[in-house]
Design a protein that fits this description.
The structure holds 2 protein chains of 2 kinds.
Chain A: H1 11-16, H2 18-21, H3 27-35, E1 38-42, H4 48-58, E2 62-66, H5 91-102, E3 107-111, H6 120-124, E4 129-132, H7 137-150, E5 154-160, E6 163-169, H8 177-180, H9 193-196, H10 202-219, E7 228-233, E8 238-243, H11 265-269, E9 286-287, H12 289-298, E10 302-305, E11 321-322, H13 325-328, E12 341-344, H14 349-360, E13 366-369, H15 372-379
Helix pairs in contact in A: 4-5, 4-10
Chain B: H1 2-13, H2 20-39, E1 50-51, E2 70-71, E3 81-82, H3 84-96, H4 100-109, E4 114-115
Antiparallel strand pairs in B: 1-4, 2-3
Helix pairs in contact in B: 1-2, 1-3, 1-4
Classes of the chains: A alpha/beta, B mainly alpha.
């Protein structure tokens, strides 16, 4: 993994990294290793922010960033590498500028493109280690498979509300992500942070652990989380470890693996490779905010709000009935299947699932408010906040 | 559907007024239901999971569907074991979790009821980044 000829440190670098040089496990040789190393960070969001900052500060010689999103003000509660001044700018450029400000001695490669089966091997092949800071299942499986095929360690982390997970999936020495999760969960079963939220400091905690694992692997020190899954809960302040075993039947890293090349991961997972909370039920099932507004002036339509009750404190539509998605199946009897109904949530993801449930239960006159109440706040009632 | 059973029905079974045999029947019904759903692939992430019933005597009115050492096996060196107290703690925790989205995985976390060939006792699958 390491370069055979390690680069030297300049006088300035020796001062910059002096606290590292004082640690026997790092020292001058270790710092030169870091300078000669490279890391690819997939995603520059919540996890990618602390990872990129700390790997840059630590002096990893070359760091790649992959992301195609732009900075949004709703990111800043947790994505601390970005700032108010970079809202609207490309995330990779925003992050790159901050990293180079922190440490101008490193190289930062910005890949402003989605990480896909078409480009992932090309992008990842020249890096020593991969760090998975993605926010969706297709890209997580893609990141894993790329790491397995290229024989590189994949430092994994994920977050949700108060929970975090960290592991190092390195198929040469232990299990891969597919050994733990051979198949993705059914679409919609596992909510994303965009749907369910996340404590702002959580990616800081978990991303910092992720960066720590990367440094350990690159330096060859300590016991990386290979074959172990760290489970963190912020509310309990608990750190639990679970040992993982390599799956002898793993379709990617097992001895009889039958997946030899990258596949269509969106098809495999049944969901798109982003967690933008912009659900659409598809043509014929959607109604736009403007259309709904127009129809409400002339017709009676029942409005069904499937958000959680605490979200109603942020914004609400008058006259809407609130039945959270999680309780809808048990409360169908409260609804009249003969009545025309429009289902909505924050942005359309949960209401799409609610609509599927209603249709499968025999409701035929139902529509999904495309873009949710946020679309209503944007297009109809601008006094409502968007969240 | 499955979630409601996992989170709500089991605690109801554990009322002190039920006869032990009746409770066990219901617990077994529940487990059969859960197992069938797992096998149907609803819990796709754990499709390899086997379900076993561990039960011991009824102590203080709390029917125990468990768990004289339901062990996460697989020869991986995993050594986590669960006892009746752990079961009750897990059941309480599950009962407190009202989120139906995660309910299905609460059954799973119900690795208290299960024995995995190779899967770890992961709390739940999360994906955020």
């Amino acid at each position: 993994m390491m370069q055979p000829m390690l680069p030297g440190l300049t006088r300035d670098e020796i001062l910059r990294y002096s606290r590292h040089l004082l640690i026997p496990e790092v020292g001058l040789a270790g710092q030169r290793k870091l300078k000669g190393s490279s890391a690819l960070i997939i995603g520059t969001g919540g996890l990618g922010s602390p990872v990129a900052l700390y790997l840059a500060a630590a002096g990893i010689g070359r760091i790649g960033l992959v992301d195609y999103d732009v900075v949004d003000s709703s990111n800043l509660q947790r994505q601390v590498i970005h700032g108010t001044s970079t809202v609207g700018k490309l995330k990779v450029e925003s992050a790159k500028a901050r990293m180079l400000d922190l440490n101008p001695n490193i190289e930062v490669d910005a890949y402003n493109e989605p990480y896909t089966s078409e480009n992932a091997l090309r992008i990842a092949k020249d890096y020593d280690i991969l760090l998975d800071g993605t926010d969706n299942f297709p890209t997580r499986y893609l990141s894993n498979d790329v790491a397995v095929f290229l024989g590189k360690p994949n430092v994994y982390a994920s977050i949700y509300r108060f929970d975090g997970q960290v592991s190092v999936f390195y198929a040469k020495q232990g299990p891969c992500y597919r050994c733990l999760f051979p198949e993705p969960p059914p679409p919609g079963l596992v909510p994303s942070c965009a749907e369910g939220g996340v404590l702002g400091v959580l990616p800081g905690t978990i991303g910092t652990l992720q960066a720590t694992e990367a440094l350990k692997v690159l330096l060859g020190i300590g016991e990386p989380l290979i074959g172990k899954l760290l489970l963190y809960n912020a509310l309990d302040m608990s750190f639990d470890f679970v040992k993982l075993k390599k799956n002898p039947n793993c379709r990617v890293c097992g001895p009889h693996a039958d997946i030899k090349e990258l596949i269509d991961y969106e098809e495999f997972c049944g969901v798109p490779s982003h967690d933008h909370d912009e659900g659409s039920a598809g043509a014929g099932w959607d109604i736009s905010a403007l259309e709904l507004s127009s129809r409400l002036k002339h017709n009676h339509l029942k409005l069904l709000d499937v958000r959680e009750p605490h979200e109603l404190q942020i914004s609400a539509l008058p006259g809407a009935v609130n039945i959270p998605l999680g309780t809808l199946a048990a409360r169908l009897s409260e609804l009249d299947s003969a009545e025309e109904m429009v289902v909505f949530c924050k942005a359309g993801t949960r209401s799409t699932r609610a609509l599927e449930l209603l249709v499968s239960a025999g409701f035929k006159k139902v529509k999904n408010l495309k873009g949710g109440i946020n679309a209503w706040a944007k297009d109809v009632d601008t006094s409502l906040p968007i969240y | 559907m499955l979630q409601a059973v996992s989170c709500n029905s089991l605690p109801k079974m554990q009322t002190s007024h039920r006869a032990q045999s009746q409770s066990i029947d219901k617990i077994e019904d529940f487990l059969s239901f859960a197992e069938a759903n797992i096998k149907r692939g609803i819990l796709a992430t754990v499709e390899k999971m086997e379900t076993r019933v561990y039960r011991s005597g009824n102590t203080d009115g709390q029917a125990e569907a468990a768990v004289a050492g339901a062990k996460i096996a697989g020869g991986s060196g995993l050594s986590q074991t669960y006892d009746g107290q752990e079961l009750n703690r897990q059941v309480r925790k599950d009962r407190e979790e009202k989120q139906i989205n995660l309910g299905a995985l609460s059954v799973l976390r119900g690795s208290i009821f299960t024995r995995s060939q190779r899967h770890a006792d992961f709390e739940k699958t999360i994906v955020g980044g």
